[in-house]
């Protein structure tokens, strides 16, 4: 590529990013189909990353560049993903020289990008970072990417994605779980609330209607134990049922969120 060709193509790419800000699909479409006789995927990746990592701040929101890169990978599956992977490796090799703000942006972008591609990455290439000091930039980068991946998915999924990288699971955050107030220990229920929570759990799993649960709450819980106890049992139990994954939580709240809404008609109870 001649210097003048490089300059013209880069200006075109910057113009497309500017004029299609907010229309990421159109942006990716135009970027992937410039009428030039040579391959320019590397220049395209370099231009996008130069904008994403521009200091003091990127021209547009980082999510815009993230989505454009995702769409380009889908539009040019035979070429662009490999170019992006090469860019990531090049930036990782120079991570110690990057400004801290750039490192943070790169971590946020990379974890989000992998979340859109089944968290697939050859982590075994970076397994050696486990032997570096805890403060080493490369080790910190890998650790923070894994932490954010866990937030975007769940612990077991990310553990599975790095199973080929020996020792890298040490950098995973501690496996979390729900802090459920009414969890029965040793199979024994220690209070009436434990029994109520168990009954509600059975009703939810039996797909009982919202109306039936509301009646049960009013007659069996509020009337006997009071409103505060009823609210705590309902919220604790529903959140515990949904704690397995984000999908579980969305499902249970879509199905039974109205139970809480009907229990809390005024601002104070909400």
Automatic annotation (TrEMBL):
Residues 38-162, 180-263 form the MIF4G-like type domain. GO terms for cellular component: nuclear cap binding complex; nucleus. It comes from the Eukaryota. GO terms for molecular function: mRNA binding; RNA cap binding. Coiled coil: none annotated. PANTHER family: CAP BINDING PROTEIN, NUCLEAR CAP-BINDING PROTEIN SUBUNIT 1. This is Nuclear cap-binding protein subunit 1. It comes from Acorus calamus (Sweet flag).
């Amino acid at each position: 590529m001649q210097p003048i060709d490089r300059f013209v193509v880069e200006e075109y790419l910057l113009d497309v990013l500017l004029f299609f800000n907010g229309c990421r699909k159109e942006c990716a479409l135009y970027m992937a189909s410039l009428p030039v006789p040579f391959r320019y995927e590397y220049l395209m990746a370099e231009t996008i990353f130069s904008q994403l990592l521009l200091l003091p701040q990127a021209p547009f929101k980082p999510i815009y560049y993230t989505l454009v890169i995702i769409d380009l990978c889908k539009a040019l599956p035979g070429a662009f993903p490999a170019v992006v992977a090469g860019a990531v490796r090049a930036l990782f090799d120079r991570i110690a020289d990057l400004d801290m703000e750039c490192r943070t942006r790169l971590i946020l972008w990379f974890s989000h990008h992998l979340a859109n591609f089944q968290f697939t990455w050859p982590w075994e290439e970076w397994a050696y970072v486990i032997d570096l000091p805890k403060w080493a930039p490369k080790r910190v980068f890998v650790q923070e990417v894994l932490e954010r991946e866990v937030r975007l998915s769940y612990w077991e999924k990310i553990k599975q994605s790095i199973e080929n990288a020996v020792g890298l699971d040490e950098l995973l955050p501690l496996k979390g779980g729900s802090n459920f107030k009414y969890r029965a220990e040793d199979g024994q229920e220690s209070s009436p609330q434990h029994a109520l929570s168990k009954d509600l759990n059975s009703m939810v799993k039996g797909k009982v209607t919202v109306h039936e649960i509301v009646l049960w709450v009013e007659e069996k819980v509020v009337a006997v134990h009071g409103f505060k106890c009823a609210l705590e049992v309902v919220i604790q139990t529903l959140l515990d049922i949904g704690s397995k994954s984000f999908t579980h939580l969305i499902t249970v709240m879509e199905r039974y969120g109205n139970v809480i809404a009907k229990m809390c008609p005024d601002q104070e109870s909400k």
